[in-house]
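Technical note accompanying the year-one report. For the benefit of new consortium partners, we illustrate the data format agreed upon in the data management plan: each record pairs a sequence with a structure-token string. No post-processing was applied to the example shown here.
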Amino acid sequence: MPTVFFGIIALIILLWLAQSYVKADPRWLAAVMKISGGIVALAAAAFLGVRGQFEIAVPLGLSGLGLLGWGPLKSTFGARSRKTPGQTSRVRSAFLEMELEHDSGAMRGRVLSGRYAGTPLDALDLSTLIGLLGEIDQESRSLLVAYLDRRAPRWREHTQGGASSGQGAAASTGKMTQEEAYEVLGLEPGASADEIGRAHRMLMKKLHPDQGGSTYLASRVNQAKDVLLRRHR
């Protein structure tokens, strides 16, 4: 009788999952399957334990606890299901290459030309970076201002007059290609419209003024979204 009872429960769960599969988000479905598997495993372990079959019940119960995120198998299962590193957006100008991590909002950059070519921006002191503002093109200046706003929000207090000029949005130097658009949004070629929309929304949150955002970078993100969504119309 208990075997029939557990079989009916498993069948109900399978039918429910099958009915929800078509419209379910894959990540949500995976989480539901993991929880359902853990519950079924614990129920089966309890049944086998009552019958005295501890050599099967114990490992099965531990597996169920691991699926539910509990017990000694939690760390092993967590290692298998750990998220991959977050996406990174890249924007280039004639003078700089800038990267923005989607998850943390951290920004880092590298000089591409001139006497500091190949040098990470983090390796240059604040006065040197401010001095570069008057030596580079408008697009590069907008990128450098965005970086300075993240690294030292009060950096303008150290400037004189026009030293921080050009901190508004700069017009793009040319039409954005699809390859550049994928890099700006941190996506792989062939990304779906939903993936493009999600990446755009996440980046726009990170680029909000309250988060040290940049009008220029926000315009580039919007441009990248428009370029890629044309493929899906």
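Partners are asked to follow this layout when depositing records. The chain has two domains: 2-81, 88-232.
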